[in-house]
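Quick question about two entries, pasted in order.
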Amino acid sequence: MNPPKDLSQATVSVEPSDASPIMGVGTPSASGPMPPVPQPLDVPVAHTRSGYRIAKRALDLTASSVGLVLLSPLLAGIAAAVRIDSPGPVLFRQERLGLGGRPFACFKFRTMISSADEGQHQRHVSRLMKHGDGARERAWIPIEGDERVTNVGRFLRRSHLDELPQLLNIVKGDMSLVGPRPPIPYEVELYEPWHLRRLSVLPGLTGLWQVVGWGRLSFDEGVKLDLDYVEQRSFGLDVRIILRTLWQILRGRQF
């Protein structure tokens, strides 16, 4: 299958969602909090051509390393602003699931108060992903008017600068510049079996879902775009996604 020449024409058809939640991953319980996701998940890794794998890793290492050096004054300024704006650590570390479902620590600049309750986001995700009442047709968007977000955090989120520390994850090899965004374990607890295939490649800082329809598509539609990327991966497609991401950030578009 050839990669799409025009990313806006990428398919968003949704696979049937009548399958039951994945067995062995964990489902919500009315009697208490969700059980932890078994670590690691046994998700088959997608075959990647050796030439593409080498070129992609070279681009990841070069761009992330150079980016960390060139952006170091900006990173220091953001760190100072986060520290001054509210008490707590500068960086936020969160467990995400990467290639094959393996967990890793994902870095971001902290955008919330240090005492923020993660349960609020967990309930938001559950509402978006649960079956019935058209919930799975809702656009995948952040919590509106989230009072946990700090003043500096709102700016960092709008500009996407809060994601810059993930350049460290790329250097380490946990992530790539381009790929499906890494999910939180409690999101994966609600996956249907076909959703798991988005974990068959390295997660990315940006991806096809982000540049085509972030904030406008439902979760199932977004995952279908991630699976399109898994099928059509190429160096040229990665470069086009990176360029489109930069253009959208410069235009101030949210995704």
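Here is the second entry:
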Amino acid sequence: MKLQKLVKFILFNFIAFALVSCAASGLVVSQLDNSGQPKHLGSAFPVSWEPNPRPIADGNDGQLLIRTSESIKLLYAAHDSKGKQNLFMSGSKNIGDSFSKAKRVNSVEGEVSAHGENGPKLKQGSGRGMFAAWIGNRDIKFARSMNFGRSFNSSIRVNDDIGKASQSFFNIEVAPDGNIFITWLDGRDKKTNLPGSSSIYMARSVDQGKSFGKNIKISGDICPCCRPALAFGDNGEIFISWRHVFEDHERIIVVASSLDRGKTWSKPVKVSDKGWKINGCAHSGPAMKYVGGKLFVTWYTGKNDKANLKFAFSLDKGKSFLKEKNIQGSVLDANHPNMTILGNEAWVIFQGRDPNLEGGWSRDKAWLLKISSNGNTSKPSALPVAGGGVFYPQLYKGNGGRVYAVWTDLGEGGSRVMLCRGRISS
């Protein structure tokens, strides 16, 4: 009897050691089932992460751009000794092992305002073009590089209003035809909007960012601090999603579409029947991608006193949406989803707390799930942690089966841009 107990004890500890070792090496990515217990995803989510995420810049709100050669550009914001923010770019030619000395991107020193939901953006254009956008002195600023990011032209102002209205919480995407679209939340219509709300505007560039056209208003009564999302269909459609403010402070994610390159827009369509009634702003906008003829949308809500990530999709290009569902599993305080297309799937990365650690009050981790082309979702899987918290995680597709996760770590020594690299094993 004593021998049997000894064998069981040795076997149990051997299995536990093997599981811990595999997780540390990045060979296993765990998930949480409905009861909150870890469960191996197996072949359902075969990503091997490096075990120790590491800082690649002192700053916040990092953005990556990965070229076919796997050379990487990093755009991020950092404070100077006077507390002012600037944008910087550095590069890596060894798949992220090291990064070059950073160069400033913004023309006007100290003008940048970057903080999570209101962070900068970096996008790839055609050929050598790279496009950076940010908030500078309450305006939408844009600068382009036509030499693979070695230098940027002087920035231009995208919003065309006259006055002191605030423009912020923007997004930028490059359409399949090379046109550049920027959409943002705008304070110029305060007299006609509901109290405490903004309008949503957009502008388009048809000359690779040399200039932007007239600003076009899409809608008023917008939740003023939730970044909008942009996506493109396969026949020239443009989709924009935002958090709309309805009567009695009910805030619902909506989608509007354009069939004429952004000149005119449809009435916004509700993604869910009922929204979140709150007299304030969540600082959490939707994420949206067009995948295989379907429009996928995911967003955060605190409705019914519970933090949930919702997902819904449309089969008719945004004219209607199927019933939404929760996708965060047992992850607590799930928020700030970011969506990336990999093949015919949408992968969603977000931040949240592990329910099995410190009574559910451990620091935020980065979590990843995928949505198949038919709308089925996997359970969330935790990425390795570096000791600090995770804020506004982003996921980027590399080449050769590589993926890159970036987030801001707000530690005691200040904010840092963190990198975690992974490989898709099948």
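Reply: The chain is about 5% helix and 45% strand. The longest helix spans residues 2-25. Hope that helps.
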